[in-house]
Amino acid sequence: MARDAFEREYDKLQKTLNTSKGLITILTDEHSASAFNTSGEKVGEIICGECCVRLDAMGEPQYELLLTSANVDQMYRRLGIAEACVEAICETSGQIIFANMDAYMPQSDGSHLTSDGKAFAYKMIKKGKMNRMTSDDVDS
Hints:
The protein is of the alpha/beta class. The chain has one domain (3-137): Aminopeptidase (3-Layer(aba) Sandwich). It contains 3 helices and 7 strands. It has helices at 3-9, 81-93, 117-126; strands at residues 13-19, 22-28, 32-36, 42-55, 61-72, 97-100, 130-133. A 7-stranded mixed sheet has the order 1-2-3-4-5-6-7, covered by helices on one side. The protein is globular, with a radius of gyration of 15 Å.
């Protein structure tokens, strides 16, 4: 897909991040953000889904964004790319992202934390950029 066609798909927010590997462009919509290097190659991505976390006083489901996938290419890790993607999704959607901290195996909501995912989620929670969710928090 041509770069300009991709940018049209992700036209909600575009920001750049200056890293030791060069400029990284973050393109986002309401539920995902992708990071691209100066050659236009995707080097990272955060994807969220909507999850019912509670019912309001009228019994209506209240949906929140749930982290379902986080990936940054090995050579681009620890540069702030995933954090910038989280910030971009929060800015675009107007919501904070939840992370299911009990999810070691794929859950019915699609989430699970693998590799560096749990440490990343804890770091974002500690910084106030994400909220912690456990399996008990999700209404079936």
